[in-house]
Amino acid sequence: MGHISRIWHVRFAHHPAQGEVYILSFGEDARCICWILEATSLEQAGVPYRLTQLDAKRLHNGKNIWSLAVDDGIQVATGGADGALAWLHFAGAKSLQFQRGQLSHPRQALVTGGDFRSYAFVGQKGLIATTDQGQPFRLILDGGCCQASTVSDSLAELRGYSIITGARGVAFVAGAKGTIYSYVENTNYLQPLLTTGRKVAGLFLSDPCTDTTGDPSRPLDLLITNVKSGVAVCCNVVLAQATGSVTKGDDRRLCLPDGFVVTSFASRRSSGEITMVLGSRNGSIAVYTISSHHVEQPLSPTTVSIAVHGQETVTQLVIFSREEEIADNNICLFSTGRDGTFAAHKLHLSSTRTTFSTKHQLQLPFGPNIEGLDVNDHGDIRVWGFRSRQFVVFDIAAQQEIMSVECGGVHRNWAFQSHNGGGKFVWTKASKLYFTTQELIPHKTANSGGHGREMKCVAVSPVVSGLFATGAEDTDIKVNRYESGSFRCLHTLQKHVTGVQHLQWSADGRYLFSSGGFEEFLVWRITTNMPHLGIGVTCESRHPKSGTSDLRILSFDAQYQRKNNYEEDTPFHITMVYSDSTIRSWHYFDRTWSLLADGDYLTSCLTQCLHSADHRNLITASTDGFLVMWLSDKTQQKLSWVARHRVHQSAILSAVSLNDARVGRLMITGGDDNAIGVTLVAERESEAFWTLLMPRAHAAAVTALVVVKTREHRFWFASASIDQRVKLWRVKVDAGKVGSEMVDVKLVANIFTAVADVSSMGKIQCEGGQVGLLVAGVGLDVWRMPQLVD
């Protein structure tokens, strides 16, 4: 309750129609909290008013709501440190000022003849519930009230223990003696369906039908597990909603792997084949593929994937397949788990084997108890679960919380029915039933927002147009897309525990590498064309020394070991520079790391690292202003520096390089001395360095550089500084001259950027194929490049 840090703003919001006074508070925790101010009774002398929290909304990423505007207590606009603008409209049917009637009204508990043991939704408004006394109830939620009516007499086998699973229009109930009952929406009876002969441990219902037009008969798959049984039963049932009946079809017995306790289930029927996917309490997923002529029972799984969600429960499975994927025997499977992640997997089915591969799995910004997911009518993925004492619904595409309810936490009975605007949530607290409804999302944002703190690095995908990643001091990495003149956050990567220092894509765009403090180095696998996601991201590997010291990996260079060979079996050569002046080169392939060579510099900290095109040597930059060339002695696994060349008076903060076949390698550096240096490196001659230095290139330290275009004998690069100026330079190279006389530099453009503390830049594709310049720091800018001519 209340804010967890400093409160920046407080406003009154009076609603004349209701005659009530509200107080809105906005804080450092990026939350907006609505309170109601009420007069107390005369007995409470000295305390004339009572302040009660009605609801809290987290509208921004990171910290701080810095600005706001309130329009007659009806509309509120907020601006946060993440650069997002958010609107709360109090006049909406389910907005904050009505939540006292809609969201907090359910705290007037619904008292029945006994405690509700279990319940499940059977439609948008109806639930089937059972009490500890074995009494089945039908509950109808309508507006702010609930109507309860008995379905049948008390059933002895439901007393003290019962479980329920439901889908659109139907529910199934089981108890301690093994009888399964069916219930059809809008009827007043339970219908015995089958008997298993022993206590039912779990009921799971898969509804492969997506048609909501009221098909008169609909096939369903009901999975039944029993206590102390290693076999699960999948029963095909057909719902005839017009007659209010459920017909039992064929049973299929599934042999469960050792220690496999089923917690979730999904199925798909196509071309005479049935695919069933089971999730377990230990984080594993088992897949069963059954053809129409298959008669052997019990059926063994065709594949079992271990620890998909670590050692935590797999809480929900949803199968989704596009027509083109079905033709290729591919299935997309979504899953959630109590490890705090949402995941997407690819199943490839063939006559000989089934392969299972995880294409997307990321930690969500709430949890770790992620309890379910749904794909709504608009194709948006919604996941829900618990954060502390709140139930939270999160939109994956929008990267936003769309609903939150103060319910007391995860340890209770509850049910949720998803809806495009939120949904219906029912929960038990202190032996009483409560419910809440949200049909409209109570807030909107102008954009998904960025980081809560300043960005330290940016990397643009070399393959996917408009795709880029940013890393910040808030420890997050965000994968974004630039389209139609705006930014959209696709995913937030939360694995680092310190600020992100450096980002780099692989040459083919299939990998993203990141580094930070505590020797953190992560390898992210990127998958394109994912259904409903677009881009899939998994953390493929963490460097084995991550977290072993307080050293920062300030920069690195990751290249395929075989040039222009981007096949799956091509390893990486990764060189990292550390804050203690050490340098290490690693071989990375298929989650395996091996040290190639290491070395030490002097007492200055290394800040940049760049391989040569042929991997024969590498060049580093440091805080002493020197460029240093290194060679590797493979026999002794030792990196040794062979040449030093001073460029700047103090630290080199940024560096880029490009190759010129006539003169060798060109290094462009930006320094803490406000200067820019263009250095020619003849790599076959260890002492051959020539530098053209441009002092006072900026009015402050030069923190970002990027090459934007190359042509024969010339190239263009951009520089940015803490002085909030972005400058474009043209460089001509004349091989007929000697030393620094080869280079001629001209300033082409000089503009102001609103981005403070610029840390990094990248070249990005704009609409119409035009080249843009992405500027990152405290915010993001994109500048269209002018026509570059001599």
TrEMBL record:
Organism: Dothistroma septosporum (strain NZE10 / CBS 128990) (Red band needle blight fungus)
Family: Belongs to the WD repeat WDR6 family.
Primary localization: cytoplasm
InterPro entries found in the cross-reference section: tRNA_Anticodon_Mtase-Reg, WD40/YVTN_repeat-like_dom_sf, WD40_repeat_dom_sf, WD40_rpt
Keywords, sorted A to Z: Cytoplasm, Repeat, tRNA processing, WD repeat
Pfam families the record matches: WD40
CC annotations in GO: cytoplasm
Name under which the protein is recorded: Uncharacterized protein
Superkingdom to which the source organism belongs: Eukaryota
